[in-house]
Automatic annotation (TrEMBL):
GO terms for molecular function: transferase activity. This is 4'-phosphopantetheinyl transferase family protein. Residues 105-160 form the 4'-phosphopantetheinyl transferase domain. It comes from Ohtaekwangia kribbensis. The keyword Zinc does not apply. The keyword Cell division does not apply. It comes from the Bacteria. The lineage of its organism: Bacteria, Pseudomonadati, Bacteroidota, Cytophagia, Cytophagales.
Length: 211
């Protein structure tokens, strides 16, 4: 597994990896703290599952913490077992990302820009987001990742991407700051986000965790 990036902060850390090992090697790296769900049959999905745990383990060890596995709450939001930290995971084979923080709810999402985003965008983007993104696949990918990161920060499943999760217009660069809004029952929560455009994928996460 090749480490693309790792950042350790006062309250947590995040990392990006490229999976290059086979499943058996990844399994050895994770150890026996978690058992692969029998419902995961696809080889790439299996490696993403193991790869995500290797990433979280690596971050936690850099923080001087022991990795004891991952548990999920009733909404499917993951948490590091036996530690009072927030956790977010994302993967788009062969890339895997993870973000943890001891103080705030976090979200990280990575995707590879693909033509299908242009077809999906009209169903999940606000009209102002559609206008701003246009036919720029990379910009569409940033919008998509930002919305997914907001969902993970919110931690529940009852949001509509086009109505409850709004991203302010921005000028696309190789990396930069964007503002997200989570709107629930007329209450708006502003979430500063940060994005990075890599040659093969885009990643978006909480701004405070980016440096």
């Amino acid at each position: 597994m090749a480490l693309e990036k790792i950042v350790i902060t006062d309250t947590g850390g995040w990392a990006l990896w490229k999976i290059e090992e086979d499943e058996e090697t990844l399994q050895r790296m994770v150890g026996t703290v978690d058992e692969l769900p029998p419902s995961i049959h696809n080889p790439k999905k299996r490696m993403e599952w193991f790869g995500g745990r290797v990433v979280v383990k690596t971050i936690m060890e850099r923080l001087g913490l022991s990795f004891k596995g991952i548990v999920k709450d009733e909404f499917g939001k993951p948490f590091p077992k036996a530690h009072d930290f927030q956790l977010s995971l994302s993967h788009s084979y062969p890339y895997v990302g993870a973000l943890i923080d001891r103080e705030i709810s976090v979200g990280i999402d990575l995707e590879q820009p693909q033509e299908k985003l242009l077809r999906v965008a009209p169903r999940v983007f606000h009209k102002d987001e559609l206008t701003d993104a246009g036919h720029d696949i990379v910009k569409c990918c940033i919008y998509w990742c930002a919305k997914e990161a907001l969902i993970k920060i919110y931690g529940k499943k009852d949001l509509t991407l086009a109505e409850n999760l709004i991203i302010s217009p921005f000028t696309r660069q190789n990396e930069g700051h964007i503002l997200g809004k989570i709107i629930v029952k007329d209450i708006e929560t502003i979430i500063p986000l940060y994005y990075i455009v890599y040659p093969n994928f885009v990643v978006v996460l909480n701004k405070r965790n980016a440096s």
